[in-house]
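Exercise 7. Predict the joint structure of the components listed below.
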Amino acid sequence: MSISLEQIFTGMKGGPEAIQQNFNNVKNEMERMDGSVVDVPKEQFTPINGFTVDSNSCYCRIYKFNSFAIITVGAYVGSVTMKSWTFKEAVTIPKSYLDGFSKFRNFKDTRQITDDGWLYDSNFDVTKGLLTIYTRGNEYNNKSLGLDVAGILYN
Amino acid sequence: MLIYCFDEATKKFAYTDVIDDSAQVPENATTVAPVNADGTGMYAPTWNGTNWVPMSQEDYQENHEQQQKPNDVPTITESQKQEAQYMLELTKMKVNIAANTKTIAALTKQLTQTALKDKGVQ
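Solution:
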């Protein structure tokens, strides 16, 4: 948040107006920061490349601001059959929700872990609206994995 | 309405999108989902004008699923794996021995107390 406020001092000319203008600036910025919140319906998640998706586990909320957006997106995918150290696109969401943003930066590390201690990475491809999986040392045979990503969308 | 867009040149599936229910479906899109009857997503499907035609799993793996191991991850040899397994077994044995030692100590104590008690009675 960046608000330009005029300094107020004793005896200044047009002091009350300046104070009012400062309040207006704060109000405008607060309204701008309030932005808008969009939820992607869970029925609009589509599994690809051999995966299934439990639609009840799907969530995507996008907090839109003037020049950026914050996204939290995730799904529980099944039928994960992958070799170690391989990358796969897993689930798509409709691209227009992303408002044309072309870059994505994760808030955290991409690393995730299964209940039995297997490590894998999940990420988001903003150019296609895709959740992705990258396996690490383990070979997966018809396993289920949670994919959870949160980050910032920008240009 | 949810639509499934494909690349105009290759006809390969590209991304999904939503349009107004009353809007016309773009030429590079369809309302047919690239999903199999069992609910699994198709492998790299291509639009043939009527249906999505998926790749076979084997073809997909051959073309799109090559292993990409990062350089900073060391390769584990069979002997290293075996060594780790032995270490694991050894640790388990040590834990068992410690537990057994505890049990023996408790039993010895119990036995001593019983013996002393019996001696006192006689």
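Discussion. The radius of gyration of chain B is 34 Å.
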